[in-house]
Write a structure and sequence with these properties.
34% helix; seven-stranded mixed sheet; 348 residues; alpha/beta; eight-stranded parallel sheet; 11 helices
C-alpha cells in the first residue's frame, strides 16, 4: 500500500512539530542529501511553458529512492482566488519501482524553499546577521522569515510589496511571534537599507528589476528566490557582477535564474561544493553574496523523505491502493473482468 498525505495531514505534521522546528528538521535532511551530491542522478526540470504560466516535472534519484514533483507557476491565478504555485509529488523504491508515498507538495515546497534559503545563508551571510528585508510578501514570505529566524537568528524584518494588502497579511500572520519584529517599508529601497540579508520572492513572470546595484551595501547577502524560469528575473545584472554567486545546479540556473542575464562563462559556485568544503562561501565581511535560487529536485527528494519519515513516526496519512497488488501479477484482467463469469468460475 502507498502512504497518501493530503493537505490536512501536512497541517497535522507541521502543527505538531511547530513551523520553525519543522523547517529546521527538513533543512537537516536537505543538508544531508546535498552532502551526497555525487550519489544522485540529476537533471534540470522538464518544463511546459504557456503565455499564462508553466507546468514542470522535477525528478531526482539515488541508488535507493526515486522522487518527482509536479509543480506549476501561474502568476495570474491570484486573480482567480487560486494559488500561483501548486504541487504534489511521489517517492518510490528504485529496486522495485513501488510508490511508497504520494504527497501534497504545495505547502511542503514553501517549507523546503525556506529551509534551503536559510541553509545556504548559513554559509554566505555574515555570522552575526540579524536583520532582513523581504521584497515580495506573498504566499512564501512567512516561511522565509521563520526559516531565517529559526536557523540564523534573524530578529528584525522590513517588508515591502507593491500590493499593500500582501504586506498587511504578512504582518498579521507573524504578529506575536516571539523574538521577531516585522515592520512595513514604503519602498524596496527603504526595506533593504542597512539590512544584513535581502530576500526577493516576487511572483510576476517578467524580467523585473527588484534590486539595482546602488541599493546593495557591502557585506549584504541576497537570497534571490523569485527568478525561477526563463524570462523571469529580479536582480539587475550589475548586482550579479558585484557579487559572489552560489547556485543549486548550474545547468538549470543558467536557464532559469537571474543568471540567465549573464554570459555563459560568468563564474558561479554550486552550493554542494561549499557545503562539502570544496569551495569557499563568504570570503570576507565586505563581500556581497547572492544565492540565485530556482528550486532543485534534490530538495524535493529530501522533503519527500522527511515527510514520509515523519508520517510513519506519527501515524499520519492514509494507506491507498495506488497500484494493483494481484495474487497473480500476470492477471491484471482480474480487476476489470465481469463479475458474473468470475462468480461462476468460483462456484465451478
Amino acid at each position: 500500500m502507498t502512504r497518501y498525505i493530503d493537505i490536512r495531514d501536512i497541517q497535522k505534521l507541521v502543527r505538531t512539530a511547530g513551523v520553525e522546528s519543522f523547517i529546521v528538521q527538513m533543512a537537516q535532511y536537505i543538508r544531508a542529501d546535498y552532502l551526497r551530491w555525487e550519489q544522485f542522478d540529476k537533471a534540470p526540470r522538464v518544463a511546459s511553458h504557456s503565455p499564462l504560466g508553466v507546468i514542470e516535472l522535477m525528478p531526482a534519484a539515488d541508488a535507493s529512492h526515486y522522487a518527482f514533483k509536479y509543480v506549476n507557476g501561474h502568476p495570474k491565478n491570484g486573480q482567480r482566488d487560486m494559488p500561483t504555485v501548486m504541487a504534489f509529488g511521489a517517492l518510490a523504491e528504485v529496486a522495485t519501482g513501488y510508490p511508497l508515498l504520494l504527497s501534497e507538495l504545495t505547502i511542503t515546497t514553501a517549507l523546503r524553499t525556506a529551509a534551503t534559503s536559510a541553509l545556504v545563508a548559513q554559509s554566505l551571510a555574515r555570522p552575526h546577521a540579524r536583520s532582513m528585508a523581504i521584497i515580495g510578501n506573498g504566499a512564501q514570505s512567512e516561511f522565509q522569515v521563520l526559516a531565517f529566524k529559526a536557523i540564523l537568528g534573524i530578529s528584525e524584518v522590513r517588508a515591502y510589496d507593491v500590493n499593500p494588502a500582501a504586506t498587511a497579511k504578512l504582518l498579521r500572520n507573524l504578529a506575536g511571534v516571539p523574538g521577531l519584529k516585522v515592520t512595513a517599508a514604503a519602498s524596496a529601497r527603504e526595506a533593504v537599507r542597512g539590512a544584513d540579508i535581502v530576500t526577493t520572492v516576487t511572483a510576476d513572470k517578467a524580467r523585473a528589476t527588484i534590486l539595482t546595484a546602488d541599493m546593495i551595501e557591502p557585506g549584504m547577502h541576497i537570497n534571490a528566490v523569485g527568478g525561477d524560469c526563463p524570462g523571469k528575473t529580479e536582480l539587475h545584472a550589475d548586482v550579479l557582477r558585484r557579487a559572489r554567486v552560489v547556485v543549486e545546479f548550474e545547468p538549470q540556473t543558467r536557464v532559469e535564474g537571474d543568471l540567465q542575464q549573464m554570459p555563459a562563462d560568468f563564474p558561479v559556485t554550486e552550493f554542494w561544493r561549499v557545503l562539502a568544503g570544496q569551495a569557499e562561501g563568504r570570503q570576507n565581511a565586505e563581500q556581497v553574496t547572492v544565492f540565485d535560487s530556482v528550486g532543485f529536485a534534490l530538495e524535493d527528494f529530501s522533503a519527500l523523505r522527511f515527510v514520509n519519515d515523519q508520517a510513519a513516526l506519527r501515524g499520519v496519512g492514509k494507506r491507498i491502493e495506488l497500484v494493483p497488488q494481484p495474487d497473480n501479477p500476470q492477471d491484471l484482467y482480474h480487476y476489470v473482468a465481469p463479475l458474473a463469469p468470475l462468480r461462476a468460475a468460483a462456484l465451478a
